[in-house]
Predict the structure.
Amino acid sequence: MSNVVPFRRPASITIRARCDVVSVADDLFAALDGLQDLAERAALMNRPAPEIDAMVQGLLEAVGAVERALDCLGEGSEAAPG
């Protein structure tokens, strides 16, 4: 056994550059668009109605979560739970 704590190297500069507010917000908007598109396509699938309803409801909840994250980012504070 070793009691040596491994040295943790700092994250690379390219990763840190993608961690600013603008890039995170842009990625959240892209995720939001993708989730909304996915919910629309899922609603049109030829599957049993209860299955479609549950799937679309889950996707809409995910949309709400991303919207709350965007609200937090835009306001600079925590958004109220939805």
